[in-house]
Amino acid sequence: MKFLRKDNQITFCGEYPIDKNDPAAAKEAIELTLPEGFSKKAKECWDYFDGAAFIFEYKGRLVITDEAVELTEAGDGSRTNPWGAPRWIVDSWEELEQILEETYDELKEEEII
Prior knowledge:
By secondary structure, this protein is α+β, with helices and mostly antiparallel strands. The chain has helices spanning about 40-50, 95-110; strands at about 30, 55-60, 60-65, 90. The chain has one domain (about 25-110). The chain is built from 2 helices and 4 strands.
């Protein structure tokens, strides 16, 4: 596993991830915890999303989903084929940490956290 480190672990949120484009492959997604070594800002942002965001290692990338646990973008927005997509897809923990820090700043500016 590319993204498993000494300061994070494999976990399970209780929901299996979904890939409407490749349903069989979704079984290969591995859920991971946020690494302990992240900045305080990034951790606080992740805590804000507690229970509403999940990290999966999937097809060589980190895929961060919301409660719908959609691993890829799919659907057309209709009632029979609703649109779904992950929150973020990144290629490194550093990239995710940067996104979380930027999101923290935005939430702080909007006085949400």
